[in-house]
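Work package 3, deliverable 3.1, input record:
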Amino acid sequence: MNIEKKDTKTDGISMRARLMLVIVATLTLEATAIIQFVFAQREIKQEASLRAESELKSAENKIMDIVNQAEAAVHNNIWIAEWCLENPDSLTRIPQLVVSKNPVVVGSTIALVPGYLEKKPLYAPYAAKDLNTGEIKMLSLATEEYDYPSSEWFTKPMELNDSYWSEPYFDENGSDILMTTYSVPVKDKDGKVAAILTADISLDWLTELMQDIKVYPHAVNMVISNSGQIMVCPVETLVMQTNVNEFALGSEDYEALNQVNQAMLSGQAGELPVRYKGQLNRVYFAPVEKTGWSLSIVLPEKELYSGVRRIGMIVKLLQLLGVAMLIVILRIATKNQARYHKINEQKEKMENEIHIASKIQMAMIPKTFPPFPDRTDLDFAAAIVPAKQVGGDLYDFFIRDEKLYFCIGDVSGKGIPASLVMAVTRSLFRASSAHETNPQRIVTAMNDTMTESNDNNMFVTFFCGVLNLATGHLHYCNAGHNPPLILTDDIRLLPVEPNIPLGILHGFSYNEQETDLHYDESLLLYTDGLTEAEDMQAQLFGLDRVEAVLRTRRSSQNHLEALESAVTEFVGEAPQSDDLTMLFIHYLPKEDAPLQERHLVLHNDIQQIPQLATFVEDIAQEKQLGQSLAMGINLALEEAVSNVIMYAYPKETDGLVDVEAYLRKDSLEFVIVDSGIPFDPTKAPEVDLNASAEERPIGGLGIHLVRELMDSVGYERKDHKNYLKMIKKL
Amino acid sequence: MEVIIEKQNDVVTVFLKGRLDTLASQEVSQKLEGLAENASGTIIMDCTEMSYISSSGLRIFLALRKAASEKGGKVIVRNISNDIRSVFMMTGFLNLFQIQ
């Protein structure tokens, strides 16, 4: 038998589900990375902006420091200059003073407005500091080639009538030192501008200063003059050669660049994006007071975000790694799942086998109901409702010689071992009851066999009864089982001695009990699966509920079904933990009361045997029986009666044999009664019909023939008499 | 019960007529005692007119069968009615005898 189920869908998470999982994970990681990138970018932008602003501020402060020193150098000497206008010969001393007292000033002049002094129509003594030696030389700017009155440093303050910072310029000495000049008009007593006092400062530190600003390695720092001249720039060819406006004209992003230029030239501070040589740049700019210069830092965005990009790359790598790991983990998980499925399959197979074992076990128990459809005196029903796990409940019954043998049992424990013990117990019951009519002896024999080889300490609670169906007399023996219930008008427990379960103590002497079952009384045998059925709250079904169900009058089968459904309802969703076994015996009055009776009284003399033939003939005539049937009845009666005649009474003593016949509609009942020694012919050993002639004993055929010829044979000893009851169905 | 024993050479034929019940068996048993003692040949039990047999009757058959097999003879049962055949069957005697 192949009960293995092959499930093809058990190879783990489906390919599609795995793909979905990977995609979702990837998308989640990607989204996280993007959000992180955007926020980081914003942070970095702010950070860069703050840094540029502070660098520009610091550079401006440094520039202003020098500018202020230069301005101070001039302003501190203005009053001397005004005073000197009265003594023109001392005017030369003024530039000297300006240069010598102020380290930042490299040159100074006081240039008279042409024609202010008649004797000196052009006069501009100039003090120049040698940058290497620090020595101060006196020169004159009032030369024909130089023409100072048309120089910017002279004309602008004149025009403005105010101090003025000149456009930067290269020193006329030919050196490439960038210079700028601060010029202030000097007024005479009448308030008329008489001369211009100047201080030249070298701007070579400005380049260094700007180079020192290292916001980012590839940032470009620039200074432009008031007019837009590029003063400081890493590209040296542009320095003092190019105006920013010209520069903008030739650029690809003119509009943006022009916007920057205009903002810078108008003295604003701020930041703007500019595309240059295909790269996006951010330009941070701030003005320098007084001079009209503007400082700027140009930062390629690529560099600005290079850190974020690097982190982005790392995140990407981690993502890939993560996804790869996810795939690997999924593969492993799938494999594990497949393995788990395999284990499950094995488990299922095992459960299936247990299920089959349980079925085999159930098959041993008589299950055809009603089991005795012909009997009107017995309404019998029994059932086992097995728990999910194989259990060890059992019942069994059969009728022999007008006696109902029945038993119920519950093996300790559950599972296969319990079920095996249950099978053994049932076999033992059949074996012991095959030749025993007495429940006490049946139980004792079973116990002794079980204790001989009970290595696993399993025991069985067991109840065995033998009900004489002719008389209602019940012999029973209990081995630690629940007391059965007797259902009459009320419900009561059958008084039982507990004794001990089977399989515990070898040689234990079990006590037998007896009672009379009256017509219409029922006996309910059950296992604790009934009374100890648990609901979800672990409450027990209990005997009270059993009794409540049984108060309604029903047939045995209906009682059984009512109890079963009451238990099912009570238990609800809770799993059935134990087998539920019940056995109902409803003892009924016989419907077929005898229509006629015949009696024959014989002496224990073999000579009287032929009278039986006449007796039977009379009955056969009355019931219109065929010759063969009549002969069979005659034979059975003769065997039973001759047995009594020959063995019941001691030799040479007179004794009587009563032969009673009850003629019913569809059966004949014969009762042979004698008051001889107790003798139960039903206990005679069975004849071995297959033995050879040599092996066959001469005796023993009589009772065998009785059993063969009659439908049931029963013996009872009552009131010092032997009763042998035989029934022949018609 | 009427019992007739005929001998012809080595073959003894026993004719049983009537009912072989418990009472009759005692009588028949006595009559066949001698036969059992010299059961070295073939014994034919003719049951054509035997209408009934009880277990004590069967015992006679079995005893004869045992004696014969001890002494090298054999027992043949001839012509049994259906009712008696069924008794033979119930008791397994059909296997013990050669039935004609």
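Chain B has a mean pLDDT of 90.
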